[in-house]
Amino acid sequence: MVAAWPCFRRWAPSSCSPASNRMPVTWGRISRQCWDKQRGMARQKARRGAGRKRMSNKPGHKADRASAEFQARVAALEAAPMGRTRLIVVLLCFILNLLDGVDVVLLTYAAPVIAQEWGLKDGALGIVLTASLLGTAFGSMLMGPVADMIGRRKVVLIAITLIGSGMLLAATAHDMVMLAVWRVVTGVGIGAILASMASITSEFSNARLRSFWVAFLQAGWPIGAIITGFASAVLIQAYGWKPLFVGSGMLSVIILPVVAWLMPESLQFLAKQDAPDRLARMNRLLVKLGQPALSEAPPLPAKRGVKLSALFEGHLARSTPALWLGMTMGWAGLYFLISWIPRIAVNAGLPLDQAIMAGATFNIGAFIGSAGIGLLATRLPLNRLIPGFLGAATLAMLLFGWVSLPIMATFATILVLGVLVQGGFNAFYPMAAQLYPTEIRTTGIGTAMAVGRSGAILGPLAAGYLMEIGTDRGMLFLVYAVPLAIAAVAAWRVGSKPS
């Protein structure tokens, strides 16, 4: 009867009370009705609870729960500090990019010696210099989609093997043709690794510093070029150019097992791969990243081949062509400077060691610019930073080409060019990483690199021809200031809201 009292108070008239002596029969009838009503409501509630439990075990609800749990882990990683594992991965990517810098510019510093040893003119030398760039374009285009399908880690290991083999075999070359062949092999590896590095760094970075870490990654390239410049200035004249190629190839051989041991696939990539041990691999990585393990694997996304048409869907229809144009024009101006500054300095009468130092000075500026724009990118949008850097670089190119400067002022201008040109261009990588979703990110970056490499190939090649026909320095730098100006305008269009 006590249990029925709340029900009675709700349903009985206010004049009734358990202490009332009136209508005892009515009181008992109402109490029994209320008691039965409560029991009925309790049974209905129990049935509803059981129904909800059964619903929660249905496949659709189970998948939703697993998806929500996975998204919670991703959100926690986005907000969390980087941590040891993620910093190790980013550092490995930085070291690999540094080694790419060594592999690319080593031939640039050796070019004057090779030209003298084999009797090559500037036009023929331009073909050798662009051979690795041709391979890089092919590697970026071919291996970008492959990395999105089989994994970035596997592609990186293949790329390191190609780079090491190409550098070691280049040291055996005795003519221009064989050297060009092995440089193409090296370039394929470099192209594959560059596209994958940006994706890996982006996916292992937290949200607040993602642009900084991807730009920091690109700063590894000029550091490798700086080290190569100083080493070449001392060693090439004493030992020739071939031992340097052997040393560079051995560095790739050494780093290969380290990368195989320490570099995992990203959580986002593992979540999209249909593998029997998918949940176990994801949980191992989550534990390393300091996050709780998942109770269930998230549902696999609908199977969809990696198609180039995906790069033009929605807002990408405007941003992708602008990115391609910006990288093509930026690379034309950048690789003109990287490839020809030592040779231009030698033609101007500087001794070989000072000419190599001019190239190293450019790369010191490149490191400062790459790191600097990475810090600025944490506060300012990239589609405003890049135009600022490349617009200022256009003016610096005109100054360097048309104004005669003392030697120290010349080196200072080369340093500024490195800051502005390399810093502005390298920011295209974090821009591309932000632009594309995970499932097409490496394809997007790799395709942009492949298209852009046409500028890297044609830029130095055309410069060799222009120098061979006697084009003066002022006109040469005017010609290559134009692509930088176009790249600045294109960068402003990337990521802008469609009208």
UniProtKB/TrEMBL annotation:
<feature type="transmembrane region" description="Helical">
    <location>
        <begin position="244"/>
        <end position="263"/>
    </location>
</feature>
<dbReference type="Pfam" id="PF07690">
    <property type="entry name" value="MFS_1"/>
</dbReference>
<dbReference type="GO" id="GO:0046943">
    <property type="term" value="F:carboxylic acid transmembrane transporter activity"/>
</dbReference>
<keyword id="KW-0812">Transmembrane</keyword>
<feature type="transmembrane region" description="Helical">
    <location>
        <begin position="444"/>
        <end position="463"/>
    </location>
</feature>
<feature type="compositionally biased region" description="Basic residues">
    <location>
        <begin position="40"/>
        <end position="60"/>
    </location>
</feature>
<feature type="transmembrane region" description="Helical">
    <location>
        <begin position="322"/>
        <end position="342"/>
    </location>
</feature>
<feature type="transmembrane region" description="Helical">
    <location>
        <begin position="212"/>
        <end position="238"/>
    </location>
</feature>
<keyword id="KW-1133">Transmembrane helix</keyword>
<feature type="transmembrane region" description="Helical">
    <location>
        <begin position="411"/>
        <end position="432"/>
    </location>
</feature>
<protein>
    <submittedName>
        <fullName>MFS transporter</fullName>
    </submittedName>
</protein>
<dbReference type="InterPro" id="IPR020846">
    <property type="entry name" value="MFS_dom"/>
</dbReference>
<feature type="transmembrane region" description="Helical">
    <location>
        <begin position="475"/>
        <end position="495"/>
    </location>
</feature>
<dbReference type="GO" id="GO:0005886">
    <property type="term" value="C:plasma membrane"/>
</dbReference>
<feature type="domain" description="Major facilitator superfamily (MFS) profile">
    <location>
        <begin position="89"/>
        <end position="499"/>
    </location>
</feature>
<feature type="transmembrane region" description="Helical">
    <location>
        <begin position="123"/>
        <end position="143"/>
    </location>
</feature>
<feature type="transmembrane region" description="Helical">
    <location>
        <begin position="385"/>
        <end position="405"/>
    </location>
</feature>
<dbReference type="InterPro" id="IPR036259">
    <property type="entry name" value="MFS_trans_sf"/>
</dbReference>
<feature type="transmembrane region" description="Helical">
    <location>
        <begin position="180"/>
        <end position="200"/>
    </location>
</feature>
<dbReference type="InterPro" id="IPR005829">
    <property type="entry name" value="Sugar_transporter_CS"/>
</dbReference>
<feature type="transmembrane region" description="Helical">
    <location>
        <begin position="155"/>
        <end position="174"/>
    </location>
</feature>
<feature type="region of interest" description="Disordered">
    <location>
        <begin position="39"/>
        <end position="65"/>
    </location>
</feature>
<feature type="transmembrane region" description="Helical">
    <location>
        <begin position="87"/>
        <end position="111"/>
    </location>
</feature>
<keyword id="KW-0472">Membrane</keyword>
<feature type="transmembrane region" description="Helical">
    <location>
        <begin position="354"/>
        <end position="378"/>
    </location>
</feature>
<dbReference type="InterPro" id="IPR011701">
    <property type="entry name" value="MFS"/>
</dbReference>
